[in-house]
Amino acid sequence: MTSLTQIPVTNQLLAQLPADERDVFMAACDTVELAFGEVLVEPAGQITHVYFPLDGFISLIAILVDDNRLEVAMAGREGMMGISLVLGVDEAPLSALVQGAGSALRMEAARFQLLLLSSPVLHQRLKRYLYVMMNQLARSSACNHFHQVEARLARWLLMTQDRAGSDRLQLTHEFLAMMLGVRRAGITLAAIALQARGLIHYHRGEITVLDRPGLIEASCGCYTADRALYAKVLAPS
User: Fold this and answer.
1) pLDDT tens column, 191-235
2) Which class for 184: exposed (0-12), middle (13-18), buried (19 or more C-beta within 10 A)?
3) What are phi and psi for residue 86, nearest 5 degrees?
4) Residues facing residue 212 across a β-bridge
């Protein structure tokens, strides 16, 4: 039987750790399968586990008192779910919904916080990731307010493609409308526009990215800014 410490680490936050820290951390994790649509935590709920996705990904969703919902961030193999524990806060500020099924490393929150005390490199990387997340949340808020739906849809498709590792994405207009906080008709018009430009193909709940460079050009600058910030702040030392 292969131990967890022998499994190649595909989560980018963990892959750059020194071998001693990485091995101790991996030994304390379980590998779990994330099911599409699974809710890992609700706003104001207690964070009982942290998740480091390997090939699945998680949407972080703000929910208002009138039950309106808006995705404000994603966590795939580049990140984690449960980052507020780094600040000593075990209450979730956002809903965490599995958007892409796949595997993840999971650890109990209490054990994670204890391990941080003896894992200085991991602790530093997670503080830097928290900084990236803060910037991305702020940019997402401005993007949703100022940018057109077509550009926002292009950005969201690129973010999803990065984490799914595939050109084919299973997405309905209803789901996209919820993620972007717009009406379904707005998503339909934006998807038609992107398809007319030959950037995507949409048919019965499946979107295929046909022209990634063109989709990047069609998106707002928030997509490239997010990637540049992550690369700058979390580049291997």
Assistant:
1) 999 999 999 999 888 999 999 999 999 999 999 999 999 999 998
2) middle
3) -60, -25
4) none
Q: How far apart are CA 69 and CA 235, in angstroms?
A: 33
Cβ–Cβ under 8 Å, residues 92 and 74: no
Question: Could you tell me how many helices (H) and strands (E) the chain has, helices first?
Answer: 9, 10
CA gap 13, 236 in Å, rounded:
10
Report angle CA 16, 21, 24 to the nearest 5 degrees: 125
Reading across the β-sheet that carries 206-209, which strands appear in turn? Answer: 168-170, 206-209, 200-203
C-beta of residue 191 within 8 angstroms of C-beta of residue 127: no
Q: Is the pLDDT of residue 236 over 80?
A: no
Q: What angle do CA 143, 206, 67 make, to 5 degrees?
A: 50
Tokens matching residue 26: 């991996």
pTM of the full structure? 0.91
Distances (CA, A) of 187 to 138, 141, 179, 202: 23, 18, 10, 12
Dist. CA 139–CA 155, nearest whole Å:
12
Encode pLDDT of 79-108 as tens digits. 999 999 999 999 999 999 999 999 999 999
Q: Please, what are the domains in the chain?
A: 4-143 (2.60.120.10), 148-219 (1.10.10.10)
